[in-house]
Amino acid sequence: MAKVVAIIGDPREKGTSRDLFQKYLAFFQEHPTIEVKIYDIRELAFDPNLPEGYRTEQTPEIIALKNDVRSADLLLFSYPVWWFNVPAVLKGVIDHLFWRGESYSFKDKKYFLTGPWRKKRARLIYTIGGMEIQHRLFGRPALTALRYPLWMSGVFSVKVTSIDRLDLSIRRTDNYYNKKVTHAAKKDIQFLLKK
């Protein structure tokens, strides 16, 4: 059975990121051979600040997330872009999830191509109020905030779906955004069914 760990990284109760997250996951309900485990950062009990660095004690919720990620084939992160970056609480999840000695290890030479998560795939779906070209001009920090830790852990198959122009007068139609998310879900399901 293939496994997906889906993380909704929007700290708001409602929003486009959450709506598109649900639309994406709806396609997986048609495939009983794919298990989906959902984590909502609004419900995770943890300190995103790592007050003791890598000595910070992990909460049961973070430990459960890490255990599920270890056995997952696909990691989904859906989040809004705020000031060209991920929301602060999602950055905290990233810091806890990509833990030295677990998701990568310099000591054991398990990073990049030899990383422990090298057989996984990731899908990043992010929403941005402005235009994606603006995000690209600044080096796409909301993408690299996740892509670099994923690469360090061995996940080089990182697929990106950007949803832009949400706050502009030249906003695209909801149908356009839904088609992008539908296309991403179908591609990821094809990947999982081949495993």
From TrEMBL:
Keywords: Oxidoreductase. One of its GO terms (molecular function) is NAD(P)H dehydrogenase (quinone) activity. The keyword Magnesium does not apply. The keyword Oxidoreductase applies. Residues 3-172 form the Flavodoxin-like fold domain. One of its GO terms (cellular component) is cytosol. It holds the Pfam family Flavodoxin_2. Belongs to the NAD(P)H dehydrogenase (quinone) family. This is Flavodoxin family protein. The lineage of its organism: Bacteria, Bacillati, Bacillota, Bacilli, Bacillales.
